[in-house]
Amino acid sequence: MSHAPASPGSAADAGAVHRFTAIGTGWQIRTAHPLPEDVRADIAALCEDLDRVWSRFRTDSLVTEIAHAAGGGRFEFPARDRCLLELYDRLVDATSGAVDPLIGRDLELLGYDASYSLTPDRAGLNARVPDAWTRDIYRDGTVLVTERPVVIDVGAAGKGHLVDLITQTLQGAGVERFLIDGSGDLRYAGTEPVVVGLEHPTHDDRVIGTVPLQDAALCSSATTRRSWGEGLHHVVDGRTGRPVSDVVATWVLSQDAATADGLATALFVAEPAQLAGFKFSWVRMLADGRVQWSKDFSGELFL
Question: From CA 156, how far away is CA 150, in angstroms rounded?
């Protein structure tokens, strides 16, 4: 949903590119010099550990354990993930539950389950009993307490969170210039901005505009990127349990990738004014082809 062409003097045009797969998608890290092997190993270990905690597609993950805890329980998450839990608290509140990490059961009913059946459970959808973060979870710091099985899905902000954790790893290793690209979720640090194209949601050879990115994150989402049938895709309104239809693509600029990622999802189900408690700029494309953007958006749109 976004791509960054090279800009002279930046990490984006460097010859050193570390490519890898993590949390089910492809990643690239561009740096001025090749990353040392120990840094690559640290990044790989971080990605594996985050996946083992949060993936609802793994039988050995913590969220899978929670999903199968018949009587609920008390579950401890890593300290590094407290900021992700707190971000979801804010997103749930700002969107009145439209963004909710307990949409996992809804995604399963829609066919986006651990076995990738991609076949909706129509009876289950009609008999849906909604789960809600504010009602079915008690959080105390990094401890979640449940009373019954619930299916957590952090697809709204989890990839951005991992981008930020990799950023911390790179900075801790003394890497000052880099461009992290987690399949379109970007975070860039460098002395000169890179110009990023905003990829059209239905024409991957076109962009609807460009934006300069420097010491910030750009995250995007589109209903066309993970779809498996008419009206079936991964962007779900937590209040209804159904995929959204009014918005088809969003782009968000913010200082950190988790916030940008979460708000890119929130813009599908909430009006920008509801998100005024966050600092960000944005663009979104509606289902009828109209494009909206914030007054402080610093890029150029080709309308």
Answer: 17
